[in-house]
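Dear support,

Our group has been running a series of protein-ligand predictions, and this particular one with pyridoxal-5'-phosphate is the one our PI (initials K.S.) wants archived with full inputs and outputs. We had some confusion internally about which version of the output was final, so please treat the block below as the authoritative record. The input we submitted was:
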Amino acid sequence: MSRPILARIDPQAFRHNYLHAKQRAPGARAWAVVKANAYGHGLLTCAEAVRDVADGFALLEVSEAMRLRAAGFTQPILMLEGFFTENDLCLAAAHQISTVIHCDEQVRMLELAELSQPLAVFIKLNTGMNRLGFPLEQSNAVLARLQASGKLAQIGLMTHFAEADGQGIAEPLAQFEAVSRLAGVPRSAANSAALIRNPEAHYDWVRPGIMLYGGSPMPALHSASALGLRPVMSLASEIIGVQHLRAGDRVGYSGTFTADRPMRVGTVACGYADGYPRHAGTGTPILVNGQRTRTLGRVSMDMLACDLTGIEADVGGRVTLWGESLAADDVAAAAGTISYELFCALAPRVPVVMC
Ligand SMILES: *Cc1c(COP(=O)(O)O)cnc(C)c1O
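Confirmed final output from the archive:
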């Protein structure tokens, strides 16, 4: 028998979530953000699930964009960090892949490049994230310079908010609105959090990512299921050993959990080398044979321990690490991280099936 760990990807749930995002932003088109191999879910699996309904896709690498083109996707595709080399730029133009332009070096590269076809670009403006983008006051100058290049099929303006999931976007949105209002070009600003919370930021294109995978962009405020989202990835495994502890016995590396009474403990075939977060301490929620219980002690590379008190389960007992009936957001919160990181960290050694 093979090691029992398995990730299931539900393309119908992805499709449901994409259509749900579209419903929440009825006036906008929606790029399905599928960077990082669709947040660990598989680029083509997710893209296929929305082939006939997706307005477009957003990702990072020209090679990934070309995989979509090779698979017959004809929608707009946007490279969110733009091109990294002149070769990327030429390939983007040749395959009609749109690109962000966020810095002078990219403008210069574009001006010097020989492109086989006109290119669609979005100029990225910095509204306080201070990661990528031109200062707001340069917006008009960059726009004029790019228009003068004569190499572009279309130019738009975009930004990315630093706190769409927290304090809010009032100030950066007002700044973006002020510089982009009169430009008369397509605009894009909203990630999942702003798509859900800020209809005034929808503009022409929204850019939902995490919500498409059934993660809440603001888990402290709303669970994914309360938002109407369905989990796309389920991580499942089995109990491969059972230990009977006496009061005072400890569990796992460094013995960080001590039993205060006799108890049964299950050893699960899942560890941090599978992508389970090592920082998930005692008490992280986990399902065994459908019943919610908790992890115990440190997560090791290939295994973790769970509390079988009051649970009918032996070796072979079914375990859900996250997925249906156990939100990845809850596991992430217990590990001091976000569902994005859990999904992206799914290790290559974990077999993946579609369901
Ligand atoms: C990743 C990303 C998104 C999607 O963000 P979510 O929080 O996952 O919805 C949108 N825009 C840009 C520029 C991104 O890099």
